[in-house]
Design a protein that fits this description.
This protein is an alpha+beta fold and 598 residues long. It has helices at 8-18, 21-25, 36-54, 58-64, 81-90, 109-143, 146-158, 286-322, 346-378, 382-417, 429-437, 446-458, 464-480, 487-513, 516-550, 556-572, 575-584, 588-591; strands at 67-69, 74-76, 161-166, 182-185, 191-201, 210-217, 230-235, 237-239, 245-248, 251-256, 267-280. It is built from 18 helices and eleven strands.
């Protein structure tokens, strides 16, 4: 059976020694009193909840799955899920980073991100039930009417109600401009919605009293395409004027998807048969409003793969230390045993270190992005808020695609460490692989994220946001450029930073002549950018570790951090050279292939 230990030491290192979040919070009146002791205490309790309450339900939830009663349209979640959710609500965890005006605790987003990393390690399928509620909360907080906020936000904050995002339909996939769900205005100012949605995570369950569906639909006079989409809030149960629940709204689960992974989460087919909802935001501007939730979900999906990478690594490491097989190539290491532990073999170490590096790099990036969200929402200086918002917009597709692709590599590598036992369910490794696989697909496939990064976020603003991140890299290079001990970490990002600027310009010029050049290069481009981002954070982590050692700290954690950083730059970072070469191969070898694909 697998096990899980919350990575509190690494979280504390990043929060307090690398990002120095307490100093950042002092500039934000809302968070000025949040100190390291408060953060550490919250995360310790969060780790206990994840490890002791949700993790034990993971394998059983995967085996049991969800069941739909076709007569009532109700979904039963796996054994223990509802009780765990009740504990989650009782502990106040849904309210952690929500606004105190709606009953929230008002803690920073970066603290909430750490909670959800641990929950994703423990049980991704369970975590999706409360996880989507945060996106619904943010969308309504940003675009809802005062009445909608009053009705829904306190209940989403407390966790008494959960939220979903009802976007895609059987015929349209990611191309939401093709959706057909209709919204007919009624005399009382509400709307009657009719249509069908698919792939709705946590779309039906009995874990909460009500489910707040955010639904994309078209008004009768809406223009075609994505410019004619509106957003509506459609509750499972009508809400009376006094806040009490009323009759059942005709928005029903008609089927559950049979999936490769995340079996414990109800991925629902939803039929909307004249359900009553209210408009969120302006007519025909629903996609912009929904993007608040979609971007939150994209950061959340990256966090899912981060969680799975961490738990897979922990279990593979423990197994490699215990499993004996063959002798070390350089001579026996465990002379008192019939064979050596497999951790002595170079390639086993490579697989373990790959997972460890991708977990630690992903954690640093996730924390940085949620710290940016805290600044974008709560910093008193408008320029700082704008800068943070632009940076997190640039990094969001990298979080979603790079971390989930890396999660695929890492969970597969960790399963490989187990050999044949990794293919057996009881060890839990094959579930981590299966659960992670969806993360590369939903909330916009990783190709869509790559197109978003290169086409919209980089070329779309002539590289302005990319230059903002480049300034961070440049400042670190300037700060540590003459430090010999930092050379092995600084020189690679200095070189790649210059290469990426030229690479971007080259693709941009090619794209002006033939847009397919952008499509052909986008996936490779995102991985190059991802490695620059990870390289920057590994350099910052190495900087903090070297300073701690220089100050006389003998904690082996810092030596381990330096060794992981060296591995990353030696074995993973050089992928960028190949990626730039394959991107430069252009679109012709892909598009001039009608005969090959006949």
């Amino acid at each position: 059976m697998p096990s899980y230990q919350p990575p509190l030491r690494d979280m504390q290192f990043l929060l307090h020694e690398v990002l120095r979040v307490s100093d950042e919070f002092k500039a934000m009146p809302r968070h000025a009193e949040v100190d390291a002791d408060t953060i550490n205490a919250v995360l310790e309790e969060a780790g206990k909840f994840a490890a002791e309450v949700t993790f034990p339900l993971n394998i059983g939830g995967d085996t049991e799955g969800c069941t739909l009663d076709q007569a009532t349209h109700e979904v039963a979640t796996p054994k223990g899920f509802k009780e765990a959710y009740a504990q989650f609500v009782e502990g106040g965890w849904p309210a952690l980073s929500c606004d105190p005006a709606y009953g929230g605790q008002g803690l920073p987003y970066v603290v909430n991100q750490c909670l959800y990393e641990m929950l994703n390690s423990a049980n991704q399928a369970w975590t999706m039930y409360p996880g989507l509620s945060h996106g619904a909360y943010e969308a309504l907080a940003a675009h809802g009417t005062e009445e909608q906020k009053k009705t829904y936000l306190p209940k989403l904050t407390s966790g008494e109600w959960t939220g979903t995002m009802c976007l895609t339909e059987p015929h349209c996939g990611t191309d939401l401009g093709l959706l057909r769900t209709k919204a007919e205005p009624l005399p009382d100012g509400t709307y009657k919605l009719t249509g069908n949605k698919i792939f709705i995570s946590a779309g039906e369950h009995g874990m909460a009293e009500n489910i707040v569906h955010l639904v994309l639909a078209r008004l009768p006079d809406a223009p075609k395409g994505s410019k004619g989409i509106s957003l509506f809030v459609v509750p499972k149960f009508h809400v009376k004027a006094d806040g009490a629940l009323g009759e059942r709204n005709p928005i029903f689960c008609t089927g559950l998807e049979h999936k490769m992974g995340i079996h414990g989460n109800a991925t629902a087919q939803i039929a909307i048969d004249g359900a009553i909802g209210t408009l969120v935001g302006a007519p025909n501007k629903g996609l912009a409003a929904m993007f608040v939730m979609m971007n939150a979900a994209r950061l959340g999906v990256g966090n899912q793969s981060l969680g799975l990478t961490e738990v897979a690594y922990q279990n593979a490491l423990a197994y490699a230390k215990d499993r004996i097989q063959m002798r070390s190539l350089s001579g026996p290491k465990a002379k008192d045993k019939d064979a050596d532990p497999i951790i002595v073999h170079p390639d086993v170490r490579k697989m373990l270190l790959t997972a460890k590096a991708y977990a630690e790099g992903g954690r640093a990036l996730q924390m940085f992005c949620t710290m940016l969200l805290d600044k974008a929402h709560h910093h008193p200086d408008e320029k700082t808020r704008k800068n943070a918002d632009e940076l997190v917009a640039l990094l969001t597709p990298i979080v979603k695609a790079f971390i989930t692709d890396n999660g695929h590599t890492a969970t597969n590598a960790c399963m490989q460490v187990f050999g044949g036992h990794g293919f057996i369910k009881e060890w839990g490794m094959e579930q981590f692989v299966r659960d992670n696989r969806i993360n590369m697909i939903y909330e916009g496939t990783n190709t869509v994220q790559s197109l978003d990064l290169l086409g919209r976020k980089v070329l779309g603003d002539q590289g302005a946001a990319l230059r903002k991140f480049g300034k961070l890299v440049g400042a670190l290079v300037e700060e540590e450029g003459v430090n010999e001990k930092m050379a092995e970490f600084i020189n690679p990002i200095a070189v790649l930073g210059d290469q990426l600027t030229k690479f971007t310009t080259e693709i941009g010029f090619k794209g002006l002549q033939n847009p397919d050049e952008v499509g052909a290069a986008a996936v490779d481009y995102l991985r190059v950018a991802g490695h620059l981002v990870f390289g920057y954070f590994f350099a910052r982590m190495a900087q903090a570790a070297l300073r701690a050692i220089a100050a006389g700290n003998t904690d082996p954690f810092y030596t381990a951090k330096l060794q992981t950083a060296r591995f990353y730059f030696a074995k993973l970072f050089p992928e960028t050279a190949t990626l730039m070469r394959t991107a430069r191969a252009g679109s012709r070898v892909l598009m001039d292939t009608d005969a090959a694909l006949a």
